[in-house]
Design goal:
Helix content is 42%, strand content 19%. It is α/β, with parallel strands linked by helices and 218 residues long. It has a six-stranded mixed β-sheet with strand order 1-2-4-3-5-6, with helices on one face. Helix 5 packs across helix 6.
Length: 218
Amino acid sequence: MSEITGKVDFKVGNDTYQTWYKIVGDLASGAHPLIVLHGGPGISHEYMTPLAEINNKCNIPIIFYDQIGIGKSSFEGVAEKPKEFWTVDLFMDELENLIAHLGVQNGFALVGHSWGAMLGAHYASHRHPVGLKHLILTSGAPSMALWEKSTRQLLNALPTDVREAIEKHEKDRTTDSPEYQQMMGMFYEKHVCKTPWPKVMETSFGAMMQNPTVYHTM
């Protein structure tokens, strides 16, 4: 299968960022491409790359991209941005910008996982894109309030010393601490992926740990 990677400029006010993308397959094949919305926000696209097999089996082009602030897309300078910078509208604007750049606005499908599912649902219901042919939502939360409540219950079920260490580092904004990353690793292994982590999972979560701004702000 063929692969093409590139970057597209994404203007936000007076600033210009870049969105990295990868196309697996041929956009000129006649099939509507499937655009992949990764989770987080702030967990890079790699863990979703097994979806490239869809192109191999069905000849559907697959478009992966890293959202602003993570992975191969622009993250320089975003750590200094106020929390008001990080909005759902920002990510919907970035998605629309990518779709227009690739020229697929007249026919495409979306698949979103976790936060990506929330982004996809919000995009479909608020922007009403005329070219959206299919919307696939996986493991997305319809309510942030319920998601936060449920996540808090899972954190509270951790050993007291682990939970208190996580809460202290998040309060002190020291999430780059090796102790915090170790404790969160315990949480992820219990509630995110219980089997030995595939390399693509390690890469995506490693990117989040390296640049946690988006994840912790939103």
